[in-house]
Amino acid sequence: MSDTSAVKALIFDVFGTVVDWRTSLINDLTAWSAPRGIKADWTALVDAWRQAYVPSMDSVRHHPERGFLKLDKLHRHSLEALVEKFGIKGLTDDDLHHLTLGWHRLHPWKDSVPGLTRLKTKFVISPLSNGNVALLTNMAKFGGLPWDLIMSAELFKHYKPDPESYLGACELLSLKPHEVMMVAAHNNDLDAAQKCGLKTSFVPRITEYGPHQSRDFKADGDWDVVAEDFEDMAKRLGC
Amino acid sequence: MSDTSAVKALIFDVFGTVVDWRTSLINDLTAWSAPRGIKADWTALVDAWRQAYVPSMDSVRHHPERGFLKLDKLHRHSLEALVEKFGIKGLTDDDLHHLTLGWHRLHPWKDSVPGLTRLKTKFVISPLSNGNVALLTNMAKFGGLPWDLIMSAELFKHYKPDPESYLGACELLSLKPHEVMMVAAHNNDLDAAQKCGLKTSFVPRITEYGPHQSRDFKADGDWDVVAEDFEDMAKRLGC
Prior knowledge:
The structure is a homodimer. The first copy, chain A, is α/β, with parallel strands linked by helices. Chain A has helices at about 20-35, 40-50, 55-60, 70-85, 95-100, 110-120, 135-145, 155, 165-175, 185-195, 230-235, and strands at about 10, 125-130, 150, 180-185, 200, 225. Chain A has two domains: about 10-20 and about 105-235, Rossmann fold (3-Layer(aba) Sandwich), CATH 3.40.50.1000; about 20-105, DNA polymerase, domain 1. The first copy, chain A, is built from eleven helices and six strands. Chain A has a six-stranded parallel sheet with strand order 3-2-1-4-5-6. In chain A, strand 4, helix 10 (about 185-195) and strand 5 (about 200) form a beta-alpha-beta unit. In chain A, helix 1 packs across helix 2 and helix 6 packs parallel to helix 11 (about 230-235). Chain A is globular and about 55 Å long. The model of chain A has no long low-confidence stretch (mean pLDDT about 95). The interface of A and B includes residues 132, 133, 147, 172 and 174 of A.
């Protein structure tokens, strides 16, 4: 482990790193649709919804003249296309709104809350997620995530991995990049943070994509901390 | 009490409303200086420091070409002038930094933490303060303030009472103004929030300025809730 003694704040990727979006959404959609008699391949829809995520942010990135759009709006737009594609009929505007907010009702991995609670005793802890502020706030209340503050790409009008998001987080914390550590289950997120001068910590979440997991089984960069999970990270960081 | 049934989030003024800045700073400065043999009229200095607060923000407001400055920087600038004025000698750069961060070490009023803890069970709770994000984050850890998120004028590059700060908070929360309630011990803060369409709640903090308190002894506007303190507010809002 390299020297991380200057680190004062830990900032976390959320989708996949802190919460299990795939299982949560499949269960949420299934439980909602069953009593309504609405049948669909919800697992396939969730996987397709997640596949639309990066292209939808790329669209914002490549068309700055259209202005920044919150992730809730991108999720809604993608869902509308998928409902059409999957031939799901009869959903009202309120239904689509409720389903979109499924991304606010994601369950933490089992080590997330105990690990964050320990890490919070020594560090400022915050998300740095592409989820919008309201999404992250509602998710924290839903899952009991003990954040000190909520930081989102929305605050910087730049989705990760744009450097403005990592450097904007350091500026809000009034810390230098080497005093801030990015925590993620995704090597590309850490690579972008490291290029901005932040410290980095990897945790594997090898079931994030279920049977479709194709990468991020292990650390593949020179990260400052590699931990088994958040409890192990707390131990390694002296909490 | 008017209809506040649509309110989903409470946003709080902090200096004076949640924390007792005057007593905290006088005690902080006195305790720091005594073992160092540095003598000064710390009470007068704190009162003068607070008097410099509004003019320093006005300066930012009236000179947008200079860019937005965090409150920590304004506090430091004001302190440097006051140290000179009060004839205090021998302070190092580190000393001035430590004293400026006294604004991060303010104690909550005794009802603040129990009241906020109750309010948090039903509402999203956040500061909306002119204090910068790092100041508010450190203060929350210092005093045990259980915020769901941290919102600051810094996020909007507009100090209160500019409307951009109140409306920016609603936008981040993905809520309409009538779904958000501003809580303050200052009638002028509530007046500005109400003009933006927010709901309002007043709590008196009649010792905030010590012997210099000249206003805000009571509600003097048509506020939606007037409470004795945060515990009473929780009761009135059904928590």
